[in-house]
Known about the structure:
Elements: H1 3-9, H2 16-41, H3 47-53, E1 68-73, E2 76-82, H4 85-91, H5 94-97, E3 125-129
Antiparallel strand pairs: 1-2, 2-3
Amino acid sequence: MSEAEIALNGQDGVRRRDFLLVAATAFTAVGAAAALWPFIDQMNPSTDVLAQGGPVDVDLSPLQPGQQILVMWQSKPIFIVRRTPADLKELQTTADTDQLRDPTGEVPQQPPYAENWHRSLVPEYLVLVGICTHLGCIPEYRPKSTAGDLGGDWPGG
């Protein structure tokens, strides 16, 4: 190799132009990624949204049979009722099940754990979103024993 070729290509045959092309391409790629990161990052939900939609842990041990507690989740009231053995027995009567559209829980939209008469994992607990579908009001829990003003045929709820 002549001295002119070494000066143009370097010792190992790599030309300066190739090195500058690779360096400029790498610099451009890093710069583009740094410029695009804020746009990509802003698409993630904010921390307050993540906190609002997360699971809520509730200690059910102090809940007595026949008692209800109210828990807020995503700014919605969630009713948790611990059913009494009499409530569970009454749920299985035909007077109650005949009022249901799907008494056995076999409609395909049901998750596997709800394909039973009590439609839950643990029949003792009832968990409901406490917003009326008619006007959006929040109903109150009225057990059979405290619903005298609702009439003698009030089943409780």
